[in-house]
TrEMBL record:
The keyword 4Fe-4S does not apply. SMART domains: PTB (SM00462). The keyword Phosphoprotein applies. This is PID domain-containing protein. Belongs to the PTEN phosphatase protein family. Pfam families: PTB (PF08416). Keywords: Cell junction, Phosphoprotein, SH2 domain. GO terms for cellular component: focal adhesion. It comes from Micrurus paraensis.
Length: 235
């Protein structure tokens, strides 16, 4: 245990040394006997039925110890975990405040009724792949911020701008079957996010996209949306 002042005998021995900081930690052995447990070498110490009882009693009165034991209210590891969680939350909030954007290929938007999760992304892509005529992919600007997800079709082929508030976006993931979107002989990973249908409290729409820039992989986009935007506390 750590004490504020070393015992008098130690102070006498270390008068000439000056630095007594290494003497502030005192060591006490606990011995186990047939009568119970107690501090070794302390004849005035009683025997205790368990180690818990010994620690608890010494938190009330020091007995042979230099001072009472201080028992923490919670596990120090929990405090570290809470601090790490708070740090991660602060980092996520800062990332979201700055926002992130890249270009992706917009594929389709499919109504899902109340379906969400990986099943929604899987079903939406299945329906899209068998659609006749197949949808034409369009490069759009995909921006994620504290306000939500904003899509901008700079060439205005399908739309000008669509915005999905952060409160409406409920899921984002890669296609669970890892199917690819084929265009011009090149294949790209597909991902989608599920958002509430505008004006509805129960119906969802799954919006599908494919990678456009190799330096902006779908996995990174999904990770940012899922952990930073959806995973952040909503005010």
């Amino acid at each position: 245990m750590k004490v504020a002042i070393p015992p008098p005998s130690i102070l006498q021995l270390n008068k000439k040394v000056g630095d007594i900081s290494n003497e502030l930690v005192r060591h006490f052995l606990i011995e186990c006997t047939q009568k119970g447990v107690r501090l070794k070498g302390c004849p005035n110490e009683p025997y205790f039925g368990s180690l818990t009882a010994l620690v608890y009693q010494h938190s009330i009165t020091p007995l042979a110890l230099p001072c009472k034991l201080l028992i923490p209210d919670q596990d120090p590891l929990d405090e570290i975990s809470e601090a790490s969680t708070q740090t991660a939350a602060n980092s996520a909030a800062e990332l979201l405040k700055q926002g992130a954007a890249c270009n992706v290929c917009y594929l389709n938007s499919v109504e899902m009724e109340s379906l969400t999760g990986h099943q929604a992304v899987q079903k939406a892509l299945t329906l899209t792949l068998v659609q006749e005529p197949p949808p034409t992919s369009t490069v759009v600007h995909f921006k994620v911020s504290s306000q939500g997800i904003t899509l901008t079709d700079n060439q205005r082929k399908l739309f000008f701008r669509r915005h999905y508030p952060v409160s409406s976006v409920i899921f984002c993931a890669l296609d669970p079957q890892d199917r690819k979107w084929i265009k011009g002989g090149l294949s790209a990973k597909v991902f989608g996010f599920v958002a509430r249908k505008q004006g509805s409290a129960t119906d969802n729409v799954c919006h599908l996209f494919a990678e456009h820039d190799p330096e902006q992989p779908a996995s990174a986009i999904v990770n940012f949306v899922s952990k930073v935007m959806i995973g952040s506390p909503k005010n």
